What we know:
The protein is an alpha/beta fold.
Amino acid sequence: MEHVLSNKVAIVTGGGHGIGAAIARQLATMGATTVICGRNRSRLQQTAKEISGESLVCDVSDWNSVSSLAQGVQQTFNRVDILVNNAGIGEFGGPLHTMSLENWDAVLNTNLRGIFYTVRAFAPLMIAGGGGDIINISSIAGKNPLPNGAAYAASKWGLNGLSYSIAEELRGHKIRVSVICPGSTNTELSPHEGKDPNKMLQPEDVAHVVAMLVTQSSQSFASEVVLRPTQKP
Length: 233
């Protein structure tokens, strides 16, 4: 797959570490001009240096921040071919009725509203360019109950529904929309007490699925991929 994306521009949100960084490395290895964004400047710069890519500070929960990102990308590259919505936060501190209003807002604004913002900002650029791929990183928590993580689960269930719906809206513009729902993944995002990290999914496993989706033959797309570890961790 080396250099198969050599004429493509890819945006990865939350690209400074974890799954986002692994996806950025994968796309860069495949030849894409890769732009990563996130809130942690130092992590972004470190990953961007590894992939010889661009890094831009952006808070996806802030429309003005996302709009500025899109304007900068348009001015620099005048196109976007791949958008990977990976940025997300978790809150697993207890039952929903004890959750603070601020934490609810933070989770939903980042994990769901943020995808609305990036699609609103970048889809018109994709349409103008003749098509592209939007890949939303969800979670198996978007398909199963998650006690003590209800807000996170709600954001991912919502993201799945959003993804299926915009896939129908955009397919006529040759934009393919896919959602990936990984199971337990060895990252900092959520607690994995009692689980063997060596049996969990690794960020590179999710990146591999992204590579599969963006190289899918042009007449088809996988609208959803549920990714599980081979052995239960």
